[in-house]
Amino acid sequence: MSAPPKQRQVSLRGASAKEITRDALLEKLAHERELRSYHRRASAAALFIQRVWRRYVTIKMVAEQIREDWEAMAGHYDDHMTSGWISNNFLRPFLFFVTHSLNLWKRQVKNVKCIMKCFRILLESINSSDAQKNFCLLSMGTLQERSTWLYQTRRLVSLCLFILAECDSSNREDNLGPLTALAMRIVVSLTDIKGWKNLRAEDIRDADFAVKRLIRYMTSDHSGIYRSFRKYIVRNGPQTASSSSENNLLIIASAITLSLRPFHLKRSGVKDEDIIAANDASKNYCIYLMTVPYLTQCLPSQLLPALKHEHVLQACLSILLASKDKIVDEMLTLNQSEISGLTAKSIPPLGWALANIINLAIEGSDSGASGCFVKGLNCKLYVHAVNCISELFLHWLESNQQLVNKDGDVILPTRDSFPGTADSDKCTSVILYINLLKPVHQQWNLRKLLTMAKVDITEEPHNACVRNKSLEDLGNLNLQDIIYFYYYMLRIFSSLNPVVGSLPILNVLSFTPGFLLELWETMESSIFRRTDHMSDEVKQYKDATFGRHAETICDTRQGQTLKDSGSRWASVLQKITGKSTDESNACSRDVSLIPSPIAEGGYDTWDIEDMKQGAQGISKDLSCALYLFCATYAHLLLVLDDIEFYEKQVPFTLEQQRRIAAALNTFVYSSLVHNGSSCRPLMDIAVRCLHLLYERDCRHKFCPSFLWLAPARKDWIPVAAAARAHEAAFSNLQCAEASTIPVVSSILTTVPHVYPFEERVQMFRELIKLDKVSRRVAGEVSGPGLGSVGIVVRRDHIVEDGYKQLNFLGPKLKSCINVSFISESGLPEAGLDYGGLSKEFLTDLSRAAFDPEFGLFSQTSTSDISLIPNMAARLLENGVEMIEFLGRVVGKALYEGILLEYSFSLVFVQKLLGRYSFLDELSTLDSELYRNLMYVKHFDGDVAELSLDFTVTEDICGKRIVTDLKPGGRNIPVTNENKLQYVHAMADFKLNRQILPFSNAFYRGLIDLISPSWLSLFNANEFNQLLSGGKNDFDVDDLRSNTKYSGGYSENSRTVKLFWEVVKGFKPTERCMLLKFVTSCSRAPLLGFKHLQPAFTIHKVACDIPLWASLGGQDVDRLPSSSTCYNRLKLPTYKRSSTLRNKLLYAISSNTGFELS
């Protein structure tokens, strides 16, 4: 049965089933409505475009017709020229057709001719003595005439300023100079009632009112005299008296006159509207003119005094301080694209405003060494304004550093190069800009500011570092204002040129007498407010110790008096030379300026309470003062010699030096504890100054040892944890953010000296222990076994054999070494190497290689007889490679904890630690050269008489080698002006340049085994102590208390008691020989014999002798022997001390061990 047919659906509304849905219908209607709206807008736009075009065409046609009629009328203006005719019939049509074709006016020569003709006729009218013809007298006519005059003059001023902005004197095709000069004459005449003819006394008030309204319009944003003048200066570049044409000079003089009109109104104005208008003009003056690049060089020098007038400059500075936010915002929005030249574009308008203010505040274009500020300058206002701009400019520099220093090469500019010229491409923008700030780093500038600050110093609070000022009450100029001034300048110079940019300012600050001392005294009152820095105990020590020190120096000097006692420099030479080099140096080293650590209260004395919060806990005033002080003093410390620092005590006494060191030490440590990474510039410079003081103290003590330990005395941490943190931080220091480095790691990498030396030695050993563990985990064998390195060494060729068999290993030298000796007779020596022979090998190799007779190293001329690379080593075969190998030997000794018998010159160690050496360190290397350089430095006469030049002569293996200290040095004589350069250049050569190839080679070998991060824990003296143990002797009682006994001996055995009596009676050298005989190393463990592994052991060797022999006075005949692998002394049972002494001396002098068994 089939399905019934499907019935058709019928809508009750009468529609079919295929009708559109409601949503689709609404979307369709919306689309149609939008389409109709679009067509309506298109039609309206088309109509508007048509109207605009028809209007343009109509106006153009009308303007053209009016222009033709105007030209015809202007040709016969003499017949009917009156002031009314000028206004109604002459200016009205002219302004119509000119202002409606300004966009094309330069392309139409006829328009330029019309403008020039109009301006000439108008000038003739203004200068006319006939009242009927003078156009300016309309300003005092009827109300309608006044209104028309003001409207037309405003249009004329706008036209003239437009011409000024478009003028380009460098473009010969335009040649708009004459027109622009004529335009400027028009505006000057309209705004100066003194030049108006036939002006009656009763009309002066009305004329002055009209001119003031015109000037307000001219200096407003709408008209923009300052905008136009800025464009003209930027387009036309520098103008000098010789290069400027008459028109250019007239244009600039007129523009300056017009720009300064509002400042004269402010002086004479009493109405509020005049003052407001003058302030607005001053604001625009600052924004548009003061930001012109090289403003003082772009303007003729004879016109600059107008801009430097006290009323102009003071008004500018005042408005700058009052509205700095608004002015700065507008400065930063200025269009820099109109400026040509690399220099101008890379420096923001803020920077140019700063440079221009500084140059406008001084007399003349180049003040030189004896300059001065402009007459009547309010220095307080000047300093505050410069500080205001400098702070904002510094912030911009730090945010846009990559834009400023994008050029890698620094090329000094020449006098002929100027930004925007072809030659300027050879110059770096930074150098050119810094040269503009030259007045800041001239000594007269600082001296005059300090003098003005001292005038009212009695009215200022003593604690200037914690004061806050407001713009409403600037107060008197004080030292804190000067601190801000040079703080910002120093930071700006450093940001612009990080390498040498800050040097000129630092030279001025460092060598201005009294400034650094005054700066410290100002800070001192804030830093030590709550700290009685000098306890009674320390005071008593200071008086006693330094009294003795003074007496010692006095006695020493009396024995060294020169014959010419009347000469001022005789005493200086007396201090330098002394009786002999060794005696002088021995005296200076033996006189201790600092006692041994005293009670716990001594730590509290040097932990400065007000510095415990670090950089975050001090005020902005103190922060800026501290930055300036650290930067200046760090710079001065580089050139202070020991006579100035310790004897003359300039600029600070030694007591002040200790206070400075304590304050900086606490500040840096506390800042690191509190994560002072946000104050990075201050931290960096404070750390640098602290390091310089600490290194000088390490070389010649002036601070108690507990001063450096004071901040961290309560925060000492487990050695293992500190070692792990230090290693992790140092390995990630280059790539990690400062905020991510742990506090302990920051302290250890920055100021490790706050932890005691013994703890840092333990950290060093822990780091090596961790390295050995990591090597073991990585599969490298570090102990005896299959992975060890076996070598055979001839005792009489120990250096050569060691070099051939070990030098190629590199970092693999960390593995264990098994040494077999061949005696001098050519026979293999008895014994197996379980560590003792390898220690003996390293010590004997180092003794032979570092012996000056071997030729690789030589001894310094100072009394400590330390080692320095021999300059003749480069002439030896494989000389530099051998020095690199010795670096590995020293690294191996440090890695295994083996002490060597030699110590290096502090200068050489400084290079290994990556540190630069300065003049004061030369005395530790070559005392004779140091004395001679001090003689030159303090020479009272004409240095040219000494016939010196900038060269150094070396005598190497009979060859005289002359080296220039600077390019062309042999042609540069040493004079009084450059003698300091000579002294420091010579010191730099001896301390850094000369030994650099050898120190680099030694360093390459050293770091194969010892990580640079491990070395950074120590200073130069501590490195030597880590290497050699310091003294050539040891504490017998310490050895006795840490000695073990075996084979039947005990502490109370008769032979043992005799042994200790004999050892105490040995000379130091004999005791060292004994220690080497037993342990294969002549130096005691750095931290005492409790750290000797294995422990020192005395083993009993029983020796029976017949009774008759004993009664007859005979003793044991057998010699002592040793097992250096186990640090064991095999001691026979001697009965008499004389026998024990003789047998022991014979054994330790025979250079054998196993053979004696």
From TrEMBL:
Give the EC number(s) under which this enzyme is classified. 2.3.2.26
Sample GO molecular function, one term = ubiquitin protein ligase activity
Q: In its keyword annotation, does this UniProt entry include Transferase?
A: yes
In the record, biological process GO terms are: protein polyubiquitination; ubiquitin-dependent protein catabolic process
Q: Which domain of life is it from?
A: Eukaryota
- Gene3D superfamilies in the cross-refs: Hect, E3 ligase catalytic domain, Hect, E3 ligase catalytic domains
Query: Which residues constitute the catalytic centre?
Result: 1125 (glycyl thioester intermediate)
InterPro entries according to UniProt:
E3A/B/C-like, HECT_dom, Hect_E3_ubiquitin_ligase
Query: What reaction(s) does this enzyme catalyze?
Result: S-ubiquitinyl-[E2 ubiquitin-conjugating enzyme]-L-cysteine + [acceptor protein]-L-lysine = [E2 ubiquitin-conjugating enzyme]-L-cysteine + N(6)-ubiquitinyl-[acceptor protein]-L-lysine
Record Pfam families: HECT
Q: Which UniProt keywords apply?
A: Transferase, Ubl conjugation pathway
Involved pathway(s) = Protein modification; protein ubiquitination
This molecule's function is given as:
Probable E3 ubiquitin-protein ligase which mediates ubiquitination and subsequent proteasomal degradation of target proteins.
What name does UniProt use for this protein? HECT-type E3 ubiquitin transferase
Q: Which organism is it from?
A: Canna indica
